[in-house]
Amino acid sequence: MTTALVVGAGPNGLAAAVTLAQHGVEVTVIEAAETIGGGTRSSEHTVPGVLHDDCSAVHPMGAGSPYLRTLDLDSHGLEWKWPEVDAAHPLDTGSAGVLLRSLDDTAHLLGADGRRWRQLFGPLASRFDDLAQDLLRPIAHVPRHPGALAQLGLRALPPAGTLARVFQSEEARALFAGIAAHVIHPLTRPATSSVGAMMIAAAHTYGWPVAAGGSQSITNALASLLGSLGGKIETGQPVRSLSDLPPSDIVMLDLAPRGVVDIAGDLLPARVRRAYSRYRYGPGAFKVDLAVDGGVPWINEHCRRAGTVHLGGNLAEIIASERDIARGIMPSRPFVLIGQQYLADPDRSNGDVHPIWAYAHVPHGYSGDATDAIIGQIERFAPGTRERIVGAFSRSTAAMSVYNPNYVGGDIITGENNPVQLVLRPRIAVDPYRTGIDGVYICSAATPPGAGVHGMCGHNAALAALRN
């Protein structure tokens, strides 16, 4: 029987393992940490009984993943839950841009900009599954849906700051810019509209759900499925060199390129080692978990019902803050993402004490403490929040890279999303998953299609291994 070892039990490592096991391969997953999950782990950081997601929190691409949707993960305990409002972006005026699963309802709330919103994102939402089939694969393939890709290209190639200006209102402009800011790259650069356009299309197709019981439930479901297929998982087993591994036919590495260099060393062909060493990492994330008595008292009513809240002010302010962090400058008012997962999944709370998930975009390797800046942004749009906080836990960029070594410098998306690395990652190659070492493949978020709890990096890499 063909055997495989998977190093790293994040969602991509587990997706690779499941794919191989489905094809009759004997699979063992080796995880350095004591708990599996990588970016999909959940913990009680603040108050007993209050459950926080450690990194990933809201999963539009998980619910819409072409691979995960084939796995019947609900039979292994995964349940998606949706908030009443998918996302909201408040402004200092007290108004907000609001994203709902319904395209028509979103357009209605955007008023005069509703028609333009529908024109831009309606065609993408109606073809989301077709787009996902093509976009969540390596760039070197024959497109199955060229028409849908052409529609996306018109919306994805401009800078997000430019595309946002097709809207008249600050609410619509800020709503799009806040979603586009998930690219964590200056919004004045080409192709920065791409991530926002796809996330909006996913929202109008699958919504922005959370996993019941925390993001750890995604991990647990994949692990359960793998076990049912005969796969094994070993935790607390750091791999410092490929020579530490027992013989196997296939080795899958759910590692950042730097991690691959560290454990493979001179076994890598010189050209691959150079490419991995030159791989660019992006800005960092500073994470804060809060336990808030009674929840956040948002001024805007839609924010009180939103699973995700983006705090960045208006379009000009978002552009400026994302530009600064790319230059290594910490803004006084950083872009902050808030998760209120308990609104869809009340079991995460302890009575009236609710978990609030938050992180700010900060410069790569930022060594300061952004806790007050994050709470300050919340206070800006929800005065009185500070007095309600009964527990807090912060995780710096350095702590992020300890929590998950793939998060180099606090980069939670495992690589800068510049135009080249958006499509050609981790190096320019026909088969980006091959490391140049026979039987050894990289399957982390540094490979196509990039970050997100969709499992497609691992799935694609496993298929490449099976082909070879």
From TrEMBL:
InterPro entries, A to Z: FAD/NAD-bd_sf
SUPFAM superfamilies noted in UniProt: FAD/NAD(P)-binding domain (SSF51905)
* Top-level taxonomic group: Bacteria
Protein name (record):
Phytoene dehydrogenase and related proteins
